[in-house]
Design brief:
The structure holds two protein chains of two kinds. By secondary structure, chain A is an all-alpha fold. Chain A is built from 15 helices and no strands. Chain A has helices spanning 2-8, 13-39, 46-77, 110-117, 119-149, 156-164, 171-181, 193-200, 213-242, 245-253, 258-269, 271-286, 290-294, 305-315, 326-359. Chain A starts with a helix and ends with a helix. Chain B is mainly α. Chain B folds into two domains: 35-80, no CATH class; 90-314, MetI-like fold, CATH 1.10.3720. Chain B has a two-stranded antiparallel ribbon. In chain B, a hairpin with a 2-residue loop joins strand 1 and strand 2. In chain B, helix 4 packs across helix 12. The N and C termini of chain B lie close together (12 Å). The chains are: A mainly alpha, B mainly alpha. At the A-B interface, helix 2, helix 3, helix 5, helix 6 and helix 7 of A face helix 1, helix 2, helix 4, helix 5 and helix 6 of B.
């Protein structure tokens, strides 16, 4: 199989193309085989075996890609880097082994205490909270106002497309776009548009990204809002259109102004959609990574939990081959903090889905 | 998400994505705010604010190094194709990463489509105990942050799975290849993909399935010959959503490639280029970024209808 190994590690474009083609072909051959197997399942307990075979590829991938890793990260976040068997939780089924064999020893939440004691991690935590407090609400509000403002005007589809396009742009691309907008005035004369406009009003340059701290975070939140507002606009616009026109008209006949009709009639009618949009953007914001990394903002006090998680992972030397093993455990603890922050949103969504299934 | 997507595109919580087109409301509604100056002003300001930054990058990408260093893009000075020539030339590293992105994105979209269609079929059309719980558990996995999953998955790719000294799964041999990145994207996409397929498949009339069963068709035959053709819109919706997601991803590509330029996607290359403060070749950054933006933008504009369905259905992935 050395030719396969060579193909897999080929650095030429064609080599990689052929490898991809080969793997995709092999994958579909396996799926075809699986379907044959399903049709030849034994008669006893047939349905159950067939269901299992249909689910098998998904269960394997979910097991190695999500379920296993969650367990592993949870254990890693609760243990220390050194393997110390004295504190292991013994496993009844396997005498002599313990649950924590792989990750070292239980260390009494030391990794989590480190997250909240270390000033870099603490500032990343508060930055993340700041992101999550501002970005989802602002993007949703702008999306709501814009969706209502362009509702049924001439050229609505075009107006919507303008705001929706950033949705297709990567965070990395958006960071390059806004890096240009925020560019510091240089001695050669180049300057970003934002700083040129500030100068018209006699204001100083923004010092991006050296301003650091919450100022830097706010400047990045602007980019996040720019990316997410289009999503909010499209979803909320669809919701606004589903509100019966008679409702707003009735309110206006009763003497309500446009603004009052919007606040008292439209907003209550689209409340469930508003919450869906807020939850969605909040989850994305809690995990914000690409923007901060591309702006190198983590070097100027603008780091977030996800960026610290990555930086600690690099510290662990897993990728580079040298480093301190505790880095991986710290990284796991940071990942678990993100997970814990996301859980309320997950719980809300699962509850909604169970409700919807019950309603059908 | 919590939205239920049907084959016709209707959705209760976040309504019909097809009504993005203007004038889709009930007939007889007037264009009432056409003359409202406040609305027009809001639309104009937001429209301009959301477009100018991208136009700025586009213009800048066509300007030479001297022009970029000495004046803002709105001067439209020093226009040249030089940057694009250098970005897309054979010895440029950005081209290599662009090819990597293409090689990554195709299997990373195809594999979860097939796997999720199989799984959703069992979850909708085969009765077995605990079926609802399996489905809800998969749905809940949708919102596991990738930060929690990606490092252990990399460890699995490198060294397999072990409990103590017992090997459950041997090393995959995919370490240092694009295979590691496909595997990660395929795994992480599944909860959303299964959710989407499940919603589509459960809208197929039960009578159709029962008729096929009575005629003696097996589950394998029904899946291939009846189900797959019927859920083609769902396959397309998810395929485009996953294409854009994988193409625009930085985190998974960064960790799973270990920063190896032979396999890392274009987002990693651009992030590194911007991240290294004014290093050599900084004038190529706008052109490189624009190349990476154009591909998803074209896909997006061409297939927006499908994309919106995918978005409405599952934008909380990852």
């Amino acid at each position: 199989m050395s030719w396969l190994h060579d193909l897999a590690h080929s650095s030429s474009g064609w080599g990689k193309f052929f490898f991809a083609l080969l793997i995709v072909a092999a994958f579909f051959a396996v799926i075809g085989l699986l379907l044959l197997l399903i049709d030849r399942a034994p008669k006893t307990g047939r349905e159950k075996i067939q269901a299992f075979l249909f689910l098998l590829p998904a269960l394997v991938l979910l097991g190695i890609g999500l379920v296993g890793p969650i367990i592993r990260t949870a254990i890693s976040s609760l243990t220390s880097g050194e393997v110390d068997r004295r504190n292991c939780v013994p496993l009844a089924s396997l005498p002599g082994r313990c649950v924590l064999d792989q990750g070292g020893a239980w260390n009494n939440f030391a990794n989590f205490r480190w997250v909240f004691a270390n000033s870099d991690q603490r500032s990343a935590f508060w930055n993340t909270i700041l992101w999550t407090l501002i970005a989802p609400a602002a993007a949703t509000l702008i999306g709501l106002i814009y969706a209502y403002a362009i509702d049924k005007i001439r050229g609505e589809a075009f107006a919507k497309a303008l705001v929706f396009l950033p949705t297709a742009i990567s965070f990395v691309g958006a960071a390059v776009i806004w890096g240009l907008m925020y560019q510091q005035p240089s001695e050669n004369g180049a300057s970003g548009l934002v700083n040129v406009i500030l100068k018209w009003f006699g204001l100083g340059p923004l010092n991006f990204p050296t301003a650091g701290g919450w100022k830097l975070t706010l400047m990045m939140i602007v980019v996040m809002i720019w990316i997410q507002a289009g999503f909010a606009t499209v979803v909320l616009s669809a919701a606004i259109k589903s509100v019966p026109a008679e409702l707003s008209e009735a309110a206006r006949i009763d003497g309500a102004t446009n603004g009052q009709a919007f606040r008292r009639v439209v907003i209550p009618s689209i409340r469930p959609t508003l919450i869906v949009v807020l939850v969605t953007i909040s989850v994305a914001t809690l995990k914000v990574f690409d923007l901060v990394r591309t702006f190198a903002a983590d070097q100027f006090g603008g780091s977030t939990l996800a960026n610290q998680m990555y930086n600690e992972y690099l510290q662990s030397g897993l990728s580079a081959g040298s480093g301190s093993p505790i880095g991986e455990h710290h990284s796991s603890a940071l990942a678990m903090v993100i997970f814990i922050l996301v859980i309320p949103f997950v719980a809300y969504q699962v509850r909604q889905m169970v409700k919807q299934r019950a309603a059908r | 998400m919590t939205t239920v997507i049907t084959p016709t595109g209707g959705a209760p919580a976040a309504p019909d994505p097809d009504s993005i087109a203007p004038g889709a409301g009930p007939a007889g509604r007037v264009r009432r705010r056409l003359t409202n100056p406040v609305s027009s002003a809001v639309a104009l300001v937001v429209g301009v604010l959301w477009t100018i930054p991208t136009i700025g990058l586009l213009v800048q990408s066509f300007r030479g190094k001297h022009a970029q260093d000495t004046s803002g893009w709105w001067h439209f000075s020093g226009l040249t194709f030089d940057n694009y020539d250098r970005v897309l030339s054979g010895n440029g590293t950005v081209l290599k990463n662009l090819i990597n992105s293409i090689v990554i994105v195709v299997p990373a979209a195809l594999i979860p489509i097939a796997v999720s269609a199989l799984a959703a079929y069992a979850l909708v059309w085969i009765d077995f105990r605990g079926r609802d719980w399996v489905y809800i558990a998969i749905f809940a996995l949708q919102v596991v942050p990738l930060q929690v999953a990606v490092v252990p998955l990399l460890r699995f790719v490198v060294s397999g799975a072990h409990i103590g000294s017992v090997t459950i799964f041997p090393s995959t041999g995919l370490a240092g290849t694009v295979g590691a990145i496909w595997l990660a994207h395929a795994c992480f996409a599944l909860p959303l993909a299964i959710f989407l397929m499940h919603n589509f498949m459960s809208e197929i009339p039960r009578d159709l399935m029962e008729a096929a069963r009575i005629d003696g068709a097996s589950h394998g035959q029904i899946f291939r010959q009846i189900m797959l053709p019927l859920v083609r819109p769902a396959l397309a919706a998810f395929g485009i959503f996953q294409f854009l997601w994988v193409w625009n991803d930085l985190f998974v590509g960064l960790v799973m490639s270990g920063g190896n330029p032979d396999i890392s996607p274009i987002t990693v290359a651009i992030s590194n280029l911007q991240n290294s403060t004014s290093g050599a070749g900084g004038e190529l950054l706008p052109a490189a970024a624009f190349v990476s933006i154009v591909i998803p933008l074209v896909v997006f504009i061409a297939l927006q209808r499908y994309f919106v369905r995918g978005l409405l259905a599952g934008s909380v992935k990852g």
